[in-house]
Predict the 3D structure of the following.
Amino acid sequence: MTDLSAFSLEGRTVLVTGANTGIGQGIAISVARAGARVLGVGRSPMTDTAQKIADLGQAFTEIRCDLADVSAAVGMLNDAWETHGPIDGLVNNAGIIRRDDAVDYTETDWDDVLDVNLKSLFFLTQSFGQRLLGSGRRGKVVNIASLLSFQGGIRVAAYTAAKHGVAGITKVLCNEWAEKGININAIAPGYIESNNTEALRADADRSAAILSRIPAGRWGRPQDIGDAAVFLLAPASDYMHGAVIPVDGGWLAR
């Protein structure tokens, strides 16, 4: 018989970045449903996320922070730890994308994407690791990678570089921290129903082309990523380290 407590986050505190909409909101809701107290981080209001979690009878705390500012991001995590108590799990979900032909890609767009999607992710995780290692606590990190951690994409040079970097950071931190009780893993979402894919889904030809490659025959939902994150934050995944798990309806298998 399956021990359901192995999939419970009861009594744990999890910090989720980019929790206002889409995948981040889906993760925050799934984590709350599993019993955790959620600290949601973002630049914009998270009223809808807060209400959905309140409807589950769970606790949600909104924390405003511009994660493009690395010093502010690190200060936010340390303040959250001091204010809300020890944090058991960190989900690095926040990210931005800028599209342009590689021949025209600007240094500003490159820096903006790398600052949020990779640099901030690393230093937030470093700060979290320092807190855990300094106190002898166990902890879990879930990084949100991408199909573009495995593929090249088109017109998204900085995003692709950043997501390849997320996969690399996941592996190097696994090698350094696994024996110290810190699990570092990543999820690579496929095509998910969210604000970021609204234009693609509205384009009948593009949507049909995408669906034709997905063996599951549907777009993913934020909860699909959220439930995978719960697994990686829960005791059930205690022996998982350094994995980059596609949750993509079979896209990469095609």
Remarks:
- The helical segments are 22-33, 47-55, 70-84, 107-135, 157-177, 198-202, 204-213, 222-233.
